[in-house]
Design goal:
CATH architecture of the largest domain: Beta Barrel
Structural class: mainly beta
CATH superfamily of the largest domain: monomeric porin ompg
Organism: Lunatimonas lonarensis
Strand content: over 45%
Keywords: Signal
Distance between the termini: 50 Å
Largest sheet: 12 strands, antiparallel, barrel
Protein name: Secreted protein
Shape: globular
Low-confidence stretches: 2-9, 11-32
Order of helices and strands: HEEEEEEEEEEEEEE
Radius of gyration: 24 Å
Mean pLDDT: 87
Number of domains: 2
């Protein structure tokens, strides 16, 4: 092997070594800064209906006071009956104040009360075991509805890799003009969480209109945290 070949070979090996160092150091560089909120996605397969939920909670920039929150839910019977398709899809912009409080504004749509712009307030509390989000909004249209929404999770560690996963989630829409119930639901979850994966038992208790027509759904849920 001549001198020129040896030099070229050493240059190639050095280039590969530098590339390897670059790839090894990239994850550490990518993880710098505050952690980004994950995007939880959940499916529940009940005795009456299938259910899907996705939560998007993002800041415009890591240090911004402005953010976006959307908790979208969809459910339908397995028989694919269009009249039994349910959707609740609020999209809220929030402006953080102090001690977990924020102002919110945006829009909401669901199949029972329709579409409306909304405005209100939000409070968030979170630590290692607890997450609590409460939102009060007022519909800015002729319906004069008020909506109270909440998500409350308790996730204590059972082992280094496993947590208990429990959640209570509700929505209640009330007509202020006529004093009647418009739409509400209560969702209950109990199971286990291993890193990004969660699974267990679930119950969705839905009510519709002034008569509070009741549609329960019981089954199994699976969830994943997309990072």
């Amino acid at each position: 092997m001549n001198l020129l070949t040896k030099v070229n070979l050493r240059a190639i090996l050095l280039a590969f070594a530098l590339m390897g160092c670059g790839w090894l150091s990239y994850p550490a560089f990518a993880q710098e800064g505050p952690p980004k909120p994950p995007t939880p996605v959940e499916w529940m397969f009940g005795h009456e209906r299938a259910f899907f939920q996705m939560v998007v909670n993002k800041k415009f920039t890591p240090d911004s006071r402005f953010g976006l929150l959307s908790v979208s839910t969809f459910s339908a019977k397995y028989t694919n009956e269009a009249m039994d398709l349910d959707m609740v899809a609020p999209v809220l912009l929030n402006y953080s104040l102090k001690k977990g409080f924020a102002l919110v504004g945006g829009s909401t749509v669901n199949n029972e009360v329709g579409f409306s712009p909304v405005a209100g307030a939000q409070h968030t509390f979170a630590n290692k075991d607890w997450l609590a989000v409460s939102i009060l909004t007022f519909f800015l249209n002729n319906s004069q509805n008020a909506e109270l929404f909440g998500i409350y999770e308790y996730k204590p560690a059972l082992s280094p890799s496993t947590e208990l996963y429990t959640r209570l989630q509700f929505m209640y829409v009330h007509g202020l003009a006529d004093g009647s119930h418009a739409r509400s639901f209560l969702q209950l979850r109990a199971g286990l969480k291993r890193q990004a994966f969660s699974f267990g038992l679930g119950a969705n208790l839905d009510r519709y209109g002034p008569s509070m027509h009741f549609k329960p759904n019981y089954g199994l849920f699976v969830g994943w945290l997309f990072l």
